[in-house]
């Protein structure tokens, strides 16, 4: 039987609740427990797949093809586990399930209501995650802030889970902000007190309080919070501001949080951590080299739109003792004339995924610059598609070559819709999603980096390279180094006679881990470091 930890947020959003939840997951895993994590998102969309990156940031994709909240990326990177669609529950999913059942007549004449039908569906999603994962601990983060109207059914569901399980099997963690009054050192606990009361009015009494603050949460402040919120001082932990997000589990550990949680959950015989995570962070912090990477995209105004790419770059850099500095470049700003200005001081260029026509030409100027000047290039999904279009246009002279996503009437549809994508009516959840196998070709960079013939990578796209142009592309120096043999689709390409020009149709960033950075990211950062050295 699993035990359950629920993480709620108080006072304001954006204080790192997801990282706190993930850090608890890391700590418990280090204490010998298996952990599954999930997120409740109270919005009505079925998933974030149809939302603008500006609204939501990155859409993280699980191996089984669920389009999910970016916090799942934190979870996977911290606990180093591949999660599933059970890890992402939204109001939209819960309601559509209930309505589907209602239409089928499953409720046998009953009036269908928020309590018990919606709350039962939410509870089921927790119990099912526990059962399917077989994990010792299921950690569930409730999105939003306590007091939001839309999160009420979720809070009610976790209250019920607490009521129907043994007290040592359910634990609540509440994350809050203790603000500092501008112009003074004074820290205010009042919002925490209110947030605690708000939770209490939902029948939830938190066991642990995690505090974010710019000031130091001294013992006397802890005592005050303890008094008002009826939580022992030892269960109040400050999540100090750290240089690396991966330090958060260590901060929690230094404050005895894992010890406290294990005691509350009656898991007193767990072994001590082997300290590997701490050693990794220490090693990362000693990085003394620097490398500059240009990230070219159209959503760069919101860095969270590229969260996993960003993190995979940093992790790959630290793994080889280098701090990666990302230069965020809006592809719409790039022209033939100013490209030199943008790229002259960068050591590598990356073009990540994206949709639609805006900014595409600038991305192609970037990939061409990398191709001509022999600067390491890494294209991901759209970044592979535009690279091939650029090569078709400029190396093969195929004027107006394009992707049919943007130009349906192009004379050279280098990138085209898969047959399976034609005639689809719905936008949501219909892309090629999740894991697909790929075979790496012998003698290529891809094989050299992966050191494996058969790989599995996660996808999220509708368009593919058009195999009709394979022969011509080869003549332009393109090597097709990764192929999905079942579907006969190009998955990885690279260029001959270039230090590092690699692009893939899948999203390797989702599988990169701090303790196991992705081979393609490592290859790219290594090549960028070498490029810097040779300058
Ligand atoms: N827009 C492209 C497609 O749908 C690329 C998608 C992506 O980069 N994730 O195929």
UniProtKB/TrEMBL annotation:
<dbReference type="InterPro" id="IPR027417">
    <property type="entry name" value="P-loop_NTPase"/>
</dbReference>
<comment type="similarity">
    <text>Belongs to the CTP synthase family.</text>
</comment>
<keyword id="KW-0460">Magnesium</keyword>
<dbReference type="Pfam" id="PF00117">
    <property type="entry name" value="GATase"/>
</dbReference>
<keyword id="KW-0436">Ligase</keyword>
<feature type="binding site">
    <location>
        <begin position="382"/>
        <end position="385"/>
    </location>
    <ligand>
        <name>L-glutamine</name>
    </ligand>
</feature>
<comment type="pathway">
    <text>Pyrimidine metabolism; CTP biosynthesis via de novo pathway; CTP from UDP: step 2/2.</text>
</comment>
<feature type="binding site">
    <location>
        <position position="224"/>
    </location>
    <ligand>
        <name>CTP</name>
    </ligand>
</feature>
<feature type="active site">
    <location>
        <position position="507"/>
    </location>
</feature>
<feature type="binding site">
    <location>
        <begin position="188"/>
        <end position="193"/>
    </location>
    <ligand>
        <name>CTP</name>
    </ligand>
</feature>
<feature type="binding site">
    <location>
        <position position="141"/>
    </location>
    <ligand>
        <name>Mg(2+)</name>
    </ligand>
</feature>
<comment type="subunit">
    <text>Homotetramer.</text>
</comment>
<feature type="binding site">
    <location>
        <begin position="148"/>
        <end position="150"/>
    </location>
    <ligand>
        <name>CTP</name>
    </ligand>
</feature>
<feature type="domain" description="Glutamine amidotransferase">
    <location>
        <begin position="302"/>
        <end position="526"/>
    </location>
</feature>
<feature type="region of interest" description="Amidoligase domain">
    <location>
        <begin position="1"/>
        <end position="267"/>
    </location>
</feature>
<feature type="binding site">
    <location>
        <position position="224"/>
    </location>
    <ligand>
        <name>UTP</name>
    </ligand>
</feature>
<dbReference type="InterPro" id="IPR004468">
    <property type="entry name" value="CTP_synthase"/>
</dbReference>
<feature type="binding site">
    <location>
        <begin position="188"/>
        <end position="193"/>
    </location>
    <ligand>
        <name>UTP</name>
    </ligand>
</feature>
<keyword id="KW-0665">Pyrimidine biosynthesis</keyword>
<feature type="binding site">
    <location>
        <position position="54"/>
    </location>
    <ligand>
        <name>L-glutamine</name>
    </ligand>
</feature>
<protein>
    <recommendedName>
        <fullName>CTP synthase</fullName>
        <ecNumber>6.3.4.2</ecNumber>
    </recommendedName>
</protein>
<dbReference type="InterPro" id="IPR029062">
    <property type="entry name" value="Class_I_gatase-like"/>
</dbReference>
<keyword id="KW-0479">Metal-binding</keyword>
<feature type="binding site">
    <location>
        <position position="405"/>
    </location>
    <ligand>
        <name>L-glutamine</name>
    </ligand>
</feature>
<keyword id="KW-0315">Glutamine amidotransferase</keyword>
<feature type="binding site">
    <location>
        <position position="13"/>
    </location>
    <ligand>
        <name>UTP</name>
    </ligand>
</feature>
<comment type="function">
    <text>Catalyzes the ATP-dependent amination of UTP to CTP with either L-glutamine or ammonia as the source of nitrogen. Regulates intracellular CTP levels through interactions with the four ribonucleotide triphosphates.</text>
</comment>
<feature type="domain" description="CTP synthase N-terminal">
    <location>
        <begin position="3"/>
        <end position="267"/>
    </location>
</feature>
<dbReference type="Pfam" id="PF06418">
    <property type="entry name" value="CTP_synth_N"/>
</dbReference>
<feature type="binding site">
    <location>
        <position position="462"/>
    </location>
    <ligand>
        <name>L-glutamine</name>
    </ligand>
</feature>
<feature type="binding site">
    <location>
        <position position="242"/>
    </location>
    <ligand>
        <name>ATP</name>
    </ligand>
</feature>
<feature type="active site">
    <location>
        <position position="509"/>
    </location>
</feature>
<dbReference type="InterPro" id="IPR033828">
    <property type="entry name" value="GATase1_CTP_Synthase"/>
</dbReference>
<dbReference type="InterPro" id="IPR017926">
    <property type="entry name" value="GATASE"/>
</dbReference>
<keyword id="KW-0547">Nucleotide-binding</keyword>
<feature type="binding site">
    <location>
        <begin position="14"/>
        <end position="19"/>
    </location>
    <ligand>
        <name>ATP</name>
    </ligand>
</feature>
<dbReference type="GO" id="GO:0003883">
    <property type="term" value="F:CTP synthase activity"/>
</dbReference>
<feature type="binding site">
    <location>
        <position position="71"/>
    </location>
    <ligand>
        <name>ATP</name>
    </ligand>
</feature>
<dbReference type="InterPro" id="IPR017456">
    <property type="entry name" value="CTP_synthase_N"/>
</dbReference>
<keyword id="KW-0067">ATP-binding</keyword>
<feature type="binding site">
    <location>
        <position position="354"/>
    </location>
    <ligand>
        <name>L-glutamine</name>
    </ligand>
</feature>
<feature type="active site" description="Nucleophile; for glutamine hydrolysis">
    <location>
        <position position="381"/>
    </location>
</feature>
């Amino acid at each position: 039987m699993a035990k359950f930890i629920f993480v709620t947020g108080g006072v304001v959003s954006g204080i790192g609740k997801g990282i706190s939840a993930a850090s608890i997951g890391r700590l418990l895993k280090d204490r010998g427990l298996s952990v599954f994590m999930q997120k409740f998102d109270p919005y009505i969309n079925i998933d974030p797949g149809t939302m603008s990156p500006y609204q939501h940031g990155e859409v993280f994709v699980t191996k089984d093809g669920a389009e999910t909240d970016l916090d799942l990326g934190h979870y996977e990177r911290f606990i180093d586990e591949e999660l599933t669609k059970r890890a992402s529950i939204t109001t939209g999913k819960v309601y559509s399930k209930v309505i589907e059942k209602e239409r089928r007549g499953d409720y046998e004449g009953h009036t269908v209501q928020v309590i018990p039908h919606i709350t039962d569906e939410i509870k089921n999603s927790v119990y099912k995650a526990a059962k399917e994962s077989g994990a010792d601990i299921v950690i569930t983060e409730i999105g939003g802030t306590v007091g939001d109207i839309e999160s009420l059914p979720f809070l009610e569901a976790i209250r019920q889970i607490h009521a129907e399980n043994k007290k040592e099997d359910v634990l609540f963690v509440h994350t809050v902000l203790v603000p500092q009054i501008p112009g003074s050192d004074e820290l205010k606990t009042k919002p925490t007190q209110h947030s605690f009361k708000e939770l209490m009015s939902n029948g939830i009494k938190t066991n642990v309080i995690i505090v974010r603050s710019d000031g130091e949460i001294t013992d006397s402040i802890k005592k005050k919070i303890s008094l008002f919120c009826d939580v022992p001082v030892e269960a109040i932990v400050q999540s100090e501001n750290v240089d690396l997000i991966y330090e958060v589990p260590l901060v929690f550990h230094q404050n005895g949080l894992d010890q406290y949680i294990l005691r509350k959950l009656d898991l007193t015989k767990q072994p001590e951590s082997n300290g590997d995570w701490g050693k990794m962070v220490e090693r990362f912090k000693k990085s003394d080299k620097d490398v500059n990477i240009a990230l070219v995209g159209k959503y760069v105004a919101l860095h969270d739109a590229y969260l996993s790419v960003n993190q995979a770059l940093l992790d790959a850099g630290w793994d080889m003792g280098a701090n990666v500095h990302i230069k965020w470049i809006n592809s719409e700003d790039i022209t033939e004339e100013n490209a030199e200005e943008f790229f002259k001081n960068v050591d590598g260029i990356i073009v990540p995924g994206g949709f639609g026509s805006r900014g595409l030409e600038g991305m192609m100027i970037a990939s061409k610059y990398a191709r001509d000047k022999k600067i390491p290039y890494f294209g991901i999904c759209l970044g592979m598609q535009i690279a091939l279009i650029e090569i078709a246009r400029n190396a093969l002279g195929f004027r107006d070559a394009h992707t049919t996503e943007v130009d349906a009437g192009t004379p050279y549809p280098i990138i085209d819709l898969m047959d399976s994508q034609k005639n689809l009516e719905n936008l949501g959840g219909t892309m090629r999603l999740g894991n697909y196998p790929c075979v790496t070709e012998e003698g290529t960079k891809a094989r050299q980096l992966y050191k494996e013939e058969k790989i599995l990578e996660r996808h999220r796209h509708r368009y593919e390279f058009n195999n009709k142009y394979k022969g011509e592309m080869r003549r332009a120096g393109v090597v097709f180094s990764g192929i999905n043999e079942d579907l006969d689709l190009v998955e990885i390409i690279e260029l001959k006679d270039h230090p590092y020009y690699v692009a893939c149709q899948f999203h390797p960033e989702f599988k990169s881990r701090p303790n196991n950075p992705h081979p393609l990211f490592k290859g790219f950062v290594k090549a960028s470091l070498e490029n810097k050295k040779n300058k």
